[in-house]
User: Fold this.
Amino acid sequence: MTRSLITLDDASRDDIERYLALTDRFAEVMQRDIKKVPTLRGRVVINAFFEASTRTATSFELAGKRLSADVINVKGSGSSVEKGETLKDTILTLNAYQPDVIVIRHKASGACAAAARFTDAAVVNAGDGTHAHPTQSLLDLYTLRRRGVGLDGLNVAYVGDVMHSRVARSGAVAFRTMGANVRFIAPPTLLPPGLAEGLGGEVSHDIRDIADADVVYVLRMQHERMGAGGFVPSLREYSREYGVGHERLRPGQLVMHPGPMNRGVEISDALADDPEVLVSAQVESGMLVRMAVLYDLIAGPVERARTVPVEEVAA
Ligand code: NCD
Assistant:
């Protein structure tokens, strides 16, 4: 059976360590003058993004290109999806080109697992509804690891719209697998009962509890998933109660955000512009992690069987 990366729920600490180690090796390759390696020459990677994306889509594209794969990008708008084609038919169509990997972003939770049934390619979940976003979690872990931050015993606080966040769902599981402690800080309306407990995190409705965190992970207010529902009385009130700015942080705390940021809502303008905030480092890690994931899914099993080091494959 083809391996896919749909969630990290079943990933062991060793699995995640393997991804991080592989990412490190690609980081080293990217230090070289020539940043393109022939590793995936002749392989086909299709990026099928049925929902908006800047960072994830561009980094998967660049990752595939730097590995010399043939990369095809399909968007929801402008494709036959607009004509009413079902996900099944779209995937069957793409499968006819015999891709090695199909990277999928979709607004429906479970869409990637469903799509995997209609293709022989490995499927990578680039975000499905409110369900999961495994490569975001890997890049978050890698960003911290690269700065020398130990994950074991690390205190991570996710702040804000936990309810609609696949980033928090995947991230909490991944951080916990690596031995970190996770807390969710949100208004009750954005943190449904049972969610945090199910993910093995603590709950707080008091923003002052970010004081205990080593990493303050600010989540975007996901307006597009809220419909007409009044999840917060007003954005101004939300921002006053839960917005993160310098005045709420203590020195040494690390701040992460998956992007795109709503400046002045969940994060202050000044904090968003602070070079100490890890947002750009997260973007940079994104491409490296996605190189590792594409490589692992396509060449990983062969490499492991032959024990060829990535440096040689990528020479
Ligand atoms: C996230 C997503 O799409 O889930 N963004 C991203 O991948 N960088 C988070 C978000 O949209 O808030």
Q: What stands out?
A: Strands lie at 44-49, 70-75, 101-106, 122-128, 155-159, 181-185, 202-204, 215-218, 254-256. The first strand starts at residue 44 and ends at 49. The pocket of N-carbamoyl-L-aspartate is lined by residues 55-56, 127, 133, 136, 166-167, 220, 222, 258-259 (CB under 6 Å). Residues 13-131+283-313 form a domain with the Rossmann fold fold (CATH 3.40.50.1370).
